[in-house]
Write a structure and sequence with these properties.
This is Inositol 2-dehydrogenase/D-chiro-inositol 3-dehydrogenase. The protein is of the alpha/beta class. The protein is about 35% helix and about 25% strand.
């Protein structure tokens, strides 16, 4: 397949936007970023210019538009849906209607969207029937080879998973922003997990949550503990912290401030961590260039494996539990 033509939807860096970094990694993986769709023509131009600045070489600035039909008129093979949480569903539907593969930002579905699990399941079926990839930007599974190096053991067969993060959002929204990370890791550990058998939320405040429960599959279970700390950081606090633990052994994800290089630290040992976004985007491009290969979450033209809708269901369970506890 020729270099895939990719469009970005909502690529402006208004809050935590990754649009320019998606553009960089898409082009590095062999795709062409040809168009950007924004809410306004001005925001689309801003996002297109930012994307062009991140692309190495002499790539042309992507076309900028606020018109959906004009955007899809650029003969796109794939789109990246990077709009704020709660706006993805209709955009994914539009991409499907125009025959495009999709890589969407997480959370895949979120408030005020409704019927998350049902809609995710239907989209899985429809993308699979069309032979199109439907994937979500879950980056943490791409850290697992380095995590296994740091642990000195494989993660397969783990009995417990812990993860802590400091999201920039607060309350319910930080669940949507951060909880998909440990859920995607849990599924990478054990793809057969279908949902929570037990779940509770312990909150010191709505911005300091411990989510504890048991994820279960037909023949397996995984204890999971998630700490979301959305309390304000001190001005000199540095990059936001994150850690992951497997069967009680903790590894910290660190960012070196001077160059933003990523690494895992276990005790005094340091393990360089390849950028998981770069790896995740490269895999998406590789799969859409050879659509006969199974994608991470949809097997093109075959029966979906339900990874996506199951993760959506797990996230909905956490959101519902938070609502019941506040």
């Amino acid at each position: 397949m020729k270099a895939p033509r990719v469009g970005l939807i909502g690529a402006r860096r208004a809050r935590q936007g990754l649009g320019p970094f998606f553009a960089r990694d898409l082009v590095a993986a062999g795709a062409k970023v040809v168009a950007v769709l924004g809410r306004t023509q001005e925001s689309a131009k801003e996002a297109a210019a930012a994307a062009a600045n991140m692309i190495e070489g002499d790539a042309e600035t992507p076309a900028a538009t606020a018109d959906t039909e004009a955007f899809f008129g650029h003969e796109l093979d794939a789109v990246c849906v990077l709009t704020p949480a709660g706006t993805h569903g209709d955009l994914v539907e539009a991409a499907l209607a125009h025959g495009c593969h999709v890589l969407a930002e997480k959370p895949f579905l979120w408030y005020p969207e409704i019927d998350w699990v049902e809609r995710a399941t239907q989209l899985e079926d429809r993308f699979a029937a069309a032979g199109l990839a439907l994937e979500v930007n879950a980056q943490w599974p791409w850290t697992l080879p380095t995590l296994e190096e740091a642990l000195g053991r494989p993660v397969a067969g783990a009995r417990s998973l812990g993860m802590g993060m400091q999201p920039a959002s607060h309350g319910l929204q930080m669940i949507g922003d951060a909880a998909p990370h440990p859920l995607s890791v849990a599924q990478a550990f054990d793809p057969s997990l279908t949902g929570f058998r037990e779940l509770r939320i312990d909150a010191d405040s709505e911005n300091d949550l411990w989510i504890r429960g048991t994820l279960a599959g037909p023949n397996s279970e995984l204890e999971i503990e998630i700490h979301l700390d959305g309390r304000p950081l001190a001005p000199d606090a540095g990059p936001r912290a994150a850690w992951i633990s497997v069967d009680g052994t903790r590894v910290d994800r660190c960012i070196r401030p001077r160059d933003y290089a990523l690494f895992f630290r276990r005790g005094s040992a340091v393990f360089d961590l390849p950028d998981p976004l770069t790896l995740r985007v490269a895999d998406f491009v590789s799969r859409i260039r050879s659509v006969s290969l199974p994608t991470a979450e949809i097997h093109a033209g075959m029966t979906p494996d339900r990874t996506l809708s199951r993760r959506v269901g797990m996230l909905k369970s956490i959101a519902d539990a938070f609502g019941a506890s506040t």
